[in-house]
Amino acid sequence: MNILKLLAPLGLGIIIGYFLFTNKSNINSSQMIQAEQITPSSIPSKSKEQQTKQINNTSNKSIIDIKNSENIAKHLVREAKVNNIESKEEKDLALKYAKLEKQYSQSQQHIKSLTRQLGEFDESDVTNEELAEFVPKEYENLIVNFKGDTRNQISKLHNDPEDLDWGYEASNNITFFITTHAYSYGVNLQSLICKNSSCELLINEKERPSWDNIFQDMTKQDWWKFTSISSSSYDKDDNIYIYSFMSL
User: Fold this and answer.
1) Residue 151: domain span
2) Is 20 a member of any domain?
3) Which residue from 32, 41, 109, 116 has the least number of CB within 10 angstroms?
4) Backbone phi, then psi, for 243, in 5-degree steps?
5) What SS3 class is residue 199?
6) What is the mean pLDDT of residues 216-232?
7) Interstrand relation of 228-236 and 239-247 (parallel, antiparallel or unpaired)
8) How many other β-carbons are positioned within 10 Å of the β-carbon of residue 123?
9) Model confidence at 100, in pLDDT bands (50, 70, 90)?
10) CA–CA distance, 171 with 154 (Å, rounded to integer)
11) pLDDT, tens digit, for every residue of 178-216?
């Protein structure tokens, strides 16, 4: 009986210990299972999917960017072509305008020439003696050849006051061009008077065709605006004396 009393607590302790051990084992097993579910081997699998998705997204974005760049490039090419066409059209219009402007200028010159010729039939109060006083002796027989309104204009030029604006600039342009031209060695600039849209030019040509070359080049300058030119010349002792009256 005493033995049973002693064995009872011992058996109870063994049973309690067994249950405690069993529960602890289950808890550890559960923790291990959960730990296995979050192992590093499962993480790369998910990362690979994310990386693949990210790469695909990046690749797609790059393709879209490239296509957008191509579209922009095509658009710029089209714009460049349009601009070239516009530039060509503008050039054509500019050429047509320049041609019309030249034709208009030639027509104006022709009208002025006809007007001057008609003016030659007009009577002038300016005598030969008065004209001869305006020029050196070598040019007297040239200046008296002019008739009508041209005589009046020549007289007006010499009697007008000095022109320090247009006249000064025109004189400088003509003088500089003649004296610096490649054929300047063949001519002497005897006299030049410019006032109020008209110029009188006296040239002594010593070697032909110096003056023709100089004059043709001079008429091509931007500052040359004369529309009416009256000239007369003669030869004497291997010299050519040239009188020119020019007006705008």
Assistant:
1) 119-247
2) no
3) 41
4) -110, 130
5) strand
6) 95
7) antiparallel
8) 9
9) confident
10) 16
11) 999 999 999 999 999 999 999 999 999 999 999 999 999
pLDDT tens digits for 9-65? 444 445 445 444 444 444 444 443 343 444 444 444 445 455 555 545 555 555 555
- Residue at 42 is within a domain: no
Query: What sign for the dihedral angle of Cα 90, 96, 99, 105?
Result: negative
Please report whether residue 200 resides in a domain.
yes
Phi-psi region of 206 (alpha: psi -120 to 50; beta: other; left: phi over 0): alpha
Residue for token pair 């031209």? 181
CA distances from 31 to 20, 26, 28, 39, 165 (A): 17, 9, 5, 12, 110
- Which pairs from 13-18 meet CB under 8 Å and 24+ separation? none
User: Rounded to an integer, what distance in angstroms lies between the CA atom of residue 235 and that of residue 205?
Assistant: 9
Domains of the chain: total: 1
Give residue 7's Cα distance to chain centre. 119
CA distances from 125 to 113, 116, 128, 206 (A): 22, 17, 10, 35
Q: How far apart are CA 170 and CA 30, in angstroms?
A: 113
